[in-house]
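Researcher: Before we compare anything, I want clean individual predictions. No alignment, no superposition, just each chain on its own. First chain goes here; please echo the sequence and then give the structure tokens.
Model: Echoing the first chain and its structure:
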Amino acid sequence: MAAEVERQVRVETEGAVGWIRLNRPEKMNAIGAITRRQLGDAIKQAERDESVRVVVLTGSGRAFCSGADVTEMAQGGDGGMRTPEDVGNVLRNEYMPMLIRLRTMPKPVIAAMNGPAVGIGASYALACDIRIATPEAYILEAFVNIGLAPDGGVSWLLPRLAGTGVAYEMFFSGKPLSATDAHRLGVINRLVAADKLEAEVRELAGHLAAQPRQAMAAAKRAVNHALESSYEEALEFESYLQEAQAASSEFAEGVQTFLSKRVKK
């Protein structure tokens, strides 16, 4: 286990909610080699822990995540990236499994955006299912400013969330999308004052944690499938999922609760 001074990702469990907190506030939670390893372990743990029904990803200090640690990339070193091949391998072997887990784990994932989400940090926020942000937050794809192309799945996520025109402008200009504009476009679900952000996220996460687990997992599978399907294919997959849910104890209990409430009225 890493020494306490190297704890760059903190994991806390509050009831059925698992909090994953990037913890490099002095670097605006930039992601370096140690952070990648710890974040990968944290996301994997959250996915596998049956007691965790909702996952929250957030940052310490004034940023959600300022992206990859460019200084470390330039220097190389332990886990650093000295060659173009190193960059590609880190994306494929380290970032990709984490981002896929966030999108596909059978439980809701909330991004509590306490500040800017930049580069790969934006990829993490956009890979979550729900985004709650402070007005000071923004999303920035600044790859063009250092001569790189978008990565971390953002070329797939951002056009679907904000539209291709917005995505192209961000990719070409290297200018940020404000939290206000992101909320207007539906990229961010809610805007919350900084001093109320975690309380609001806790309330939402607690509500989701009390919802039927399998039904939420099925809804997430349905949406992910539909993003790559025709309307007819989406209808068929929904039928398959609904058939499975209709045979579940969740459905039987839900119907019984509904009927008992009607009788009481």
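Researcher: Okay. Second chain, same rules.
Model: Second chain and its structure:
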Amino acid sequence: MWRHQFLFNWFFGLEIARKKAYLSAPAGPLKDYLSVPFPALHTPLSQLNLIALDFETTGLNAVKDKLLTVGHVEINNQQILLGSGYHQIINTQRELLADNVAIHQITDQQQQQGKPLAQVVKHLLKTLAGKPVLVHFSRIEKQFLQRACLELYGIAPPLPIIDTLLLAKKRLDKRDVAYDPSELRLSALRQHYQLPRYQAHNALSDAIATAELFLVESQHHYANATLKDLLS
């Protein structure tokens, strides 16, 4: 009961933040995003239209590091729409470190031929308008997208987020038994449900992997869930 009341207050705080940000936002992609209300808390999972999103970045600090690639795929009626898949390299306007090249398998030449950040964020905001965002480990996507919007438009928008890592953590915490934090990794959770192993550190592949994990988790744990039950 307390959690539901907390989420009720939190969500309407998010809606208030959306409306306030809309009044302050400059005309353009961010204002268009903020003009669309978030889904109601009582919306059943079966009726939710979600965007599974993943970022690959040059580091973990949203202030000094850069977005490198973006991948997303749509979930509608509890089905992954593979035709909606999107993957884009971003021109960071700086040379990549050797670690970035090794991890993400993206060369400086590929990165320099990527799209500008403003163009990619414009696309993202249009895609995300009115839809909850599904991620694994929300800190990355939330902080980097808000930071990009702050740089481009002067406002960090509110984002309704469902985090598969946090959902799994809450389930494990309820067991009151010690567990290894590595069990919360995307690959480990997928292995638990016998899902196939995909290439890591590819934004679209990771977005699809997160979407698949969420749908399997939903069958086991959230069959009758509403948005209120799932929000981070």
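Researcher: What stands out in the second chain?
Model: The radius of gyration is 18 Å. Additionally, Residues 1-8 have pLDDT under 50 and may be disordered.
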